[in-house]
Every structure is written in structure tokens, then in C-alpha cells.
Amino acid sequence: MIIGVPKEIKNNENRVGLTPAGVAELRKHGHELYVQATAGLGSGFQDAEYEQAGATVLPTIEDVYAKAEMIVKVKEPIASEYPLIKEGQLLFTYFHFASGEELTHAMIERKAICLAYETVELPSRALPLLIPMSEVAGRMAPQEGAKYLEKPLKGRGILLGGVPGVKPAEVLVLGAGIVGTQAAKIAAGLGAQVTVMDINLNRLRELDDFMPKNVVTQYSNEYNIRAAIKTADLIIGAVLIPGAKAPHLITRDMLKTMKAGTVLVDVAVDQGGCIETCKPTTHEDPTFIIDDIVHYCVANMPGAVPYTSTLALTNATLPYAVKLANLGWQKACQQDAALRLGLNVVSGEVVYQGVAEAWNLPLVDVSTVLEGAEVN
């Protein structure tokens, strides 16, 4: 298969879809690799490293899209890329269609094969291609929140861990999945008093067993959230419903009950956000203020630590990329139920329920786009 790796062009996105090691592995299986010039530079990989691994470096993004049968990226295509996408071209990347109506309609129009990292799902319900970036974003959330709690950045002027004789900050984490667990772990390590909320009691029991004593768990409902936000200094939104919009757990009216200078970090902003007032921001301009509450809503948080993020992502995506390249997307998705769930839009049809529901579009059974073959 001919595989292309374009340079990411979303604001301040420095990750890259494949490392030189990933190129070498795909070459070992006999595939042809084309990488756009300087695509890996932001993650610390030189063009020469890709060439040594067996890739051909092409000067422009247009060249890469024109050559490739499969595009391996990190973030969803943006408007300037839409015209470059060919009918039947396989795009393997994060899409988050449920929060991007324009993107959804563009991919339907281009009749591309859109296989989304974030909805590849194992029988255990684990999301293997989302986990590494969730781990990065979760660990970054308290770090960013601590920074924006500083007074010059319009926060409350509180040190997350406090000092002897002065109470630490109170951190509220909404969601006890991968993001929430990592966020709670880092916030607790910095000395904060942490509350983690979730509706999954079994998960809360697990956290209670291994988290340090400055982390407490609480069942998530509107009453408990409204009470907790009144004293919280930092609130981290870590709610995920795979492939669908996140629910708004904090609404606009709740902001007025918070202390001025409270910081909100909405890691769920890629999926529409779990805080009603959040809207996607960039690393270049990461925050905005509503009702004296600081909102940090960067949609590609791991892009700020691209070396770590690219390595972590490629570790997870490469085995699936190899399978797609070796078998072709149809056979690979017939044989692998997890990959099959990654299919969101196929040749102009929506085949993932969360996307169809988000934009009121007709849903086509995925088996009908796999050439009528028997699906395992």
C-alpha cells in the first residue's frame, strides 16, 4: 500500500502521524511511504531520519495526498485539506466528528474512508488509540491549571499544593476514566486536595483503593457538582462518551456560584466539552474569561509536548496501521472488530451511531460497506 504522512497544519500542532521507526516497520512489510518535508520536525525528527528509514520525502502536502492510498495523521483534516482528499482514500487519524459538523459533511462529500482513532474499541470497552493521548492530556491538565491559577494569568493566586500553615488548592475532577485518573494522580502529587466524581461506582471503588489519602471520590450528580464547584479552585472536565458529544455537567448559570479566578480545564473540548461555556482554544491563545472564571479549552493539549505524544501515539497506532496496510481496510475491518468500530464515514455514508445522532444524519449498517462480507 502507498502510505502518506502529511505535516500537521492545525494551529500549534507539532505532532506527526508516524515516527521514523514506524516508517521502518511499514517498509519491512513492503509498503511505500511518502512523508511531507519537515513533517516530523516539531516532534524532533529530521527529514533525513525518515529517508534513512525508507520513506521518500515530498516537498508539499498536495504531493503527499496525491500519492497516498492511506493517509496517517494525528488531527482531523482542516478546511484547506478537504479538496486534497480523494474518493476512496483511507484517512487514519483523530476525527471527533460529533463536535465537527462542517468536517462531517466535508468527509461525506469527499467520499473518503474515515477511520477514527478515538472510536477504535476493544471488547473490554477500552479505547486503545485514545488512551495514550488521554494519559498525556490528563497529566497536563493539573499542570496547566496550576499555571493559570497564578494571579498574573487572572487566576485566584493559589499555589496548588499550598505550604505549611496554608491549605492547598481544591481540585475537582469530573470523570474517573483515563484522563480523570491521570489528572487526579498528578494534582494529588502536587499536594492539592482532590475530589473525583463519576457515575460508575465500581470505578470509584477502584480509585479509592489505590489513590493517596488527599484524593476522595464522590458520586456524580447535579446536586453534588453544584455543591463542589462553590469551593473548588481548579475544575478539570474529563468526561468521554466514545464518538458522541460530551454532556454539559457545568452550565452557564453555575459560573456565578464559583469563586472569582477559578480555573476550568475542559479536556473533553474535542467532543464538544462537558462545560457549557467552553469553546475550543489554541496553544497560541489558550484561555478566555467568562464571569471572572478562567477557561482553558485547548483542543490539542498533547500537541504542546509533541516528542512524548508522538512516540506514545505511534506505539499504539502502528500495529493497526500495519494491519490496514497489509490487508486493506475492508478485510482488516472484517477481521478486527475493534478496527471496525473505528469506521465513522465510509464512501459518503455515516456508519457510526454517535456521529449520525450528533448531526441527525442517516445511519448505514457498517456491514453493508464491507462488500457484504460476513462480519466476525
UniProtKB/TrEMBL annotation:
A Pfam short name: AlaDh_PNT_N
EC number, UniProt record: 1.4.1.1
Domain Alanine dehydrogenase/pyridine nucleotide transhydrogenase NAD(H)-binding: 149-297
Keyword Cytoplasm in annotation: no
Binding, substrate: 15, 75
Keywords: NAD, Nucleotide-binding, Oxidoreductase
Gene Ontology CC terms: plasma membrane
InterPro entries membership: Ala_DH, Ala_DH/PNT_CS2, AlaDH/PNT_CS1, AlaDH/PNT_N, AlaDH/PNT_NAD(H)-bd, NAD(P)-bd_dom_sf
Reactions catalysed: L-alanine + NAD(+) + H2O = pyruvate + NH4(+) + NADH + H(+)
Positions that bind NAD(+): 134, 198, 203, 220, 239-240, 267-270, 298-301
A GO biological-process term: L-alanine catabolic process
Matches recorded under NCBIfam families: alaDH
Matching PANTHER family: ALANINE DEHYDROGENASE
Protein name per its UniProtKB record: Alanine dehydrogenase
